[in-house]
Write a structure and sequence with these properties.
By secondary structure, this protein is an alpha/beta fold. Helix 4 packs parallel to helix 5 and helix 8 packs antiparallel against helix 9. The protein is globular, with a radius of gyration of 18 Å. Bound molecules: NADPH dihydro-nicotinamide-adenine-dinucleotide phosphate (NDP) and oxaloacetate ion. The site of oxaloacetate ion (OAA) has 13 residues, from helix 9. Specifically catalyzes the NAD or NADP-dependent dehydrogenation of L-aspartate to iminoaspartate. This is L-aspartate dehydrogenase.
C-alpha cells in the first residue's frame, strides 16, 4: 500500500488525513510533520483508524513513498528538493513557489533525474483540464480574476506593504492587477491557483491576475478566461472557504484528495 507522509497539518493536510482515515483514499497514512508538533499530535489523536507517526521532516522524507506538501511556499523551497533527491514522489499545494524560475527548473530536473513524479492538483479552480487540452495548440491569453471577502486576504504581503485597511473596505475593491509571477508573491496564501494556471498554460509572465476584495461576498470566487486556437472558455467557481482557514477553499482540499485517488486508480479520467 502507498505510504503517505504529509508536511503541513492545517486545513488541507487535515482533510487528506480524514479522507484516508475514513477509507475515501486507499493508502497508508504513515507520517505527519508540521512546524508545530502539537498540531501533529492533535490531528493524529483525532483520527479513528490511522495512527501516523509524528516525524521530523528528514525522517519523513526517508520513510514514505509519496510526500504531500500542504504547508507554505517556504516549505516547497526547502523540502521539495530534498524529497526529490531522496527519490520520493511529491504532491505540491503551495504551487506559488514555482514562480521562481531557478527553483522550478531545479525541481523539474530533480524529478527527471530521480525518476519521480511531481503532482500539482487543480486546487481551488475549475478549468485546469481545459487549459491542459488547449495548450496542445497555441493559447493567446489567460486571465484569472479572484474575488475574496476581506477576511480571506488578511496577512497578504501586498496588503501589509500598501497599508490597506481591509476592515474599512465597503465595496468591491481591486487590490492587485499584474502578472501571475507578481501575484503569487503579493498574495502567497491566496492565489497559488495562479501558479497552477501558469504551469498548465502560458507561463507566469503572460498569465494576467486580478485580486479583488469584496465585503459583500461570503465565498472565494475564481474566474478564468482562456483564448487560443481552440476558441475561448470561461469558468467561474464560488468556493465555500474553510471554517478553519478562510484563505483556503474547501475545493482545494477536495482536489488534493481526488488527485490522490487518480494516482491510485488504473483509470485516468480527464486531461
Ligand atoms: N493550490 C491551491 O489551489 C491552493 C493552495 N493552498 C496552499 O496550500 C497550503 C496549505 O493550505 P492550508 O492547509 O489551508 O494552510 P494552513 O495554514 O491551514 O496549514 C498549513 C500548516 O503548515 C504549517 N507549515 C507552514 N510552513 C511549514 C514548514 N516550512 N514546515 C512545516 N510546517 C509548516 C503551518 O504552520 P504555521 O501555522 O505555524 O505556519 C500550518 O500548520 C498553503 O500554502 C496554501 O496557501 C491553499 C488553497 C488553494
Ligand atoms: O483556496 C482558494 O480559494 C485559493 C487559494 O487560497 C490559493 O490559491 O492559494
Amino acid at each position: 500500500m502507498l505510504k503517505i507522509g504529509i508536511i503541513g497539518c492545517g486545513f488541507i493536510g487535515g482533510q487528506i488525513c480524514r479522507a484516508i482515515d475514513d477509507g475515501t483514499i486507499n493508502a497508508e497514512l504513515y507520517a505527519l510533520s508540521d512546524s508545530s508538533e502539537s498540531k501533529v499530535l492533535e490531528l493524529a489523536a483525532s483520527l479513528k483508524k490511522c495512527s501516523p507517526a509524528c516525524m521530523k521532516i528528514e525522517e519523513l522524507l526517508r520513510s514514505v513513498d509519496l510526500v504531500i506538501e500542504s504547508a507554505s511556499q517556504n516549505a516547497v523551497r526547502f523540502i521539495v528538493p530534498q524529497a526529490l533527491e531522496e527519490g520520493r514522489d511529491v504532491m505540491v499545494l503551495s504551487v506559488g513557489a514555482l514562480a521562481d524560475e531557478e527553483l522550478r527548473e531545479r525541481l523539474f530536473r530533480l524529478a527527471k533525474q530521480n525518476n519521480c513524479k511531481l503532482y500539482f492538483p487543480s486546487g481551488a479552480v475549475v478549468g485546469i483540464d481545459g487549459i491542459n487540452s488547449a495548450s496542445a495548440a497555441e493559447i493567446s491569453s489567460v486571465t484569472l480574476t479572484t474575488r475574496k471577502p476581506p477576511s480571506g486576504l488578511i496577512g497578504a504581503p501586498h496588503v501589509t506593504a500598501l497599508g490597506i485597511e481591509l476592515d474599512k473596505i465597503e465595496k468591491e475593491t481591486l487590490l492587485f492587477e499584474g502578472p501571475a509571477s507578481d501575484a503569487v508573491k503579493a498574495f502567497p496564501a491566496n492565489v497559488n491557483v495562479a501558479a497552477t494556471i501558469s504551469l498548465a498554460g502560458i507561463g507566469f509572465e503572460r498569465t494576467k491576475v486580478r485580486v479583488i476584495a469584496d465585503p459583500a461576498l461570503s465565498r472565494n470566487v475564481h474566474e478564468i478566461t482562456v483564448e487560443g486556437k481552440f476558441g475561448k472558455f470561461f469558468t467561474r467557481v464560488e468556493n465555500l472557504p474553510s471554517p478553519e482557514n478562510p484563505k483556503t477553499s474547501y475545493l482545494a482540499a477536495l482536489s488534493a484528495i481526488s488527485t490522490l485517488n487518480k494516482i491510485l486508480s488504473p483509470v485516468q479520467l480527464g486531461t
